[in-house]
Amino acid sequence: MPKQENWFAQEHQLVQPFTVLYSGNMGRCHDVETFLEAAILLKDEPIQFVCIGDGAKRQILIEQSEQLGLSNLLLLPYQDKEVLPYSLTACDLSLVSVSPGIERLLAPSKFYSALAAGRPIAAVCPPDSYLKDLVQEAHCGRAIANGDGQGLANFIRELAGDRDLAASMGQAGRRYLEAHFTPRRIAEQYLEVLQNSTRTL
Q: What tens digit of pLDDT does each residue of 84-93 get?
């Protein structure tokens, strides 16, 4: 859904600015510090950061936002399930993150909803994370190393200045989802595993 037609984007004044969305848990396994650094670097530019959700690290964002006067950082609570199709498409770039040392223990489900939304993805993760491999294979965005707030800010600026590039990355991500992660495709993969396992018995 285009932002111009999205009531959630209209309600929160997200239609005009280039909007960067983090939606989901902000727990100890998630890197919120890197996109906070990017928000600080971009605080004087027409770019809006939106964080929807809760978790142990949400308080860090609240405190830093108040302390630094970050008018470009909007914090919202978890949204009802029926609102998600609108909140997830009320952006121009989706953020997904995992903290160092957790990349082999955590699979951020928000990555797949971001693909479904048809928006480009910035994956903040360690260099050997599977998220980096997925983003590169899908051509749906860019992987940013943990702690590289400047690199994230530069990627955001790049997409804000080239909306066609952002759109093409988002469309590529949606196509990748439809080819690999629909319920039908996942069921086929489970069937393949089961059939292979019975052949070895």
A: 999 999 999 9
First and final CA of the chain: distance in angstroms?
A: 49
Residue identified by tokens 């990017």 is 38
Fold of 3-199: Rossmann fold (3.40.50)
Quick one: pLDDT band at residue 199, thresholds 50, 70, 90? confident
- The DSSP bridge partners found for residue 19 are 48
Strand, coil or helix: 91:
coil
What value does the mean pLDDT take over residues 93-108? 84
> What is d(CA 102, CA 144) in angstroms, rounded to the nearest whole number?
16
> Dihedral of CA 135/140/146/151: which sign?
positive
Within 32-162, residue ranges assigned H as helices are: 33-41, 58-68, 84-87, 110-117, 130-138, 149-161
- The pTM of the full predicted model, rounded to 2 decimals, is 0.91
28: helix, strand or coil? coil
